[in-house]
Amino acid sequence: MALDLGMPILVVDDYQTMVRIIRNLLKQLGFEEVDDASDGTAALARLKNRKYGLVISDWNMEPMTGYELLRHVRADEALRTTPFIMVTAESKTENVIAAKKAGVNNYIVKPFNAATLKSKIEAVCGA
Amino acid sequence: MPLAKQARKANSSPDKPSLIRELVEIADYIAHLRNEIAALRANELTRDRLPMAHEELGSVVAATAGATNSIMNTAEEILGLPDDKNYRATVEARMNDIFEACTFQDITGQRIAKVVEALHQLESRLSRFASAVKAKDKGGIDPEEVERRVRRELLILNGPQINGPAVAQDEIDALFA
């Protein structure tokens, strides 16, 4: 299955530079529909208003972390199937295991490169 | 004549009451404590070194943010260039902007070195003081810190590891294979 380059993607990160980096990488991959949110709470509000084909989220944010956002998404009937990739500096095994248990589709540790992001999106969203 | 010396002189004969000996010991200890407090140079730390560290770290954050923005602006500009005969010349000119933006590293390195030095000073003075007065940590942690710790634990907020990722991307990939 080919990637749907028209699918909206939500990038969640409290660090605007990282949002900009991911946005540019996604643009290079051909994705044009990219929204962003600065934490889990803002992301949930966006997710209620638009159907996203993928969420790419940081872990460590205030007030709502990416881990909490993931659990909210998976607990919500309307959102639970939304593909979710965690992109984070939280690299301990306990973090990866917890995210996997909570239903994350893939996990990228920072710093990362375009090829890693591309391969994870392909793994999660088809191709 | 200082109180401790007077008391010591008055206490020179062994038949003096032990109360005076104890007072002498207390006076000695207080004098020792005062010396150690003075050696902390707390006023210098709070007036000069700590504000300097705050200021230097603030400058580092601003400089890294400024450089990152410059580099990203340039990269975005390059990505948007038309594929015409001027392409190479324009890219080369923009590359110089990136090199210039990278000069922040030299200055921020020096700023951080000053902060590290201030922290070393603080550490050695506090450590000397704690050992001189035989200080023991007492009491619980303040409630705000308890709240922060509980949140960190519940939400597994470990932060970046000192020597790079604790688990490599390959190992993570294996978990998701």
UniProtKB/TrEMBL annotation, chain A:
Assigned keywords, A-Z: Phosphoprotein, Plasmid
Domain Response regulatory as annotated: residue spans: 8-125
Signal peptide boundaries: none
Pfam families according to UniProt: Response_reg
Modified residues (4-aspartylphosphate): 58
Keyword set includes Lipid biosynthesis: no
Cited InterPro entries: Bact_response_regulator, CheY-like_superfamily, Sig_transdc_resp-reg_receiver
GO BP terms, alphabetized: phosphorelay signal transduction system
PANTHER family attached to this UniProt entry: CHEMOTAXIS TWO-COMPONENT RESPONSE REGULATOR, STRESS RESPONSE REGULATOR PROTEIN 1
Protein name, entry field: Chemotaxis protein CheY
Organism: Methylobacterium bullatum
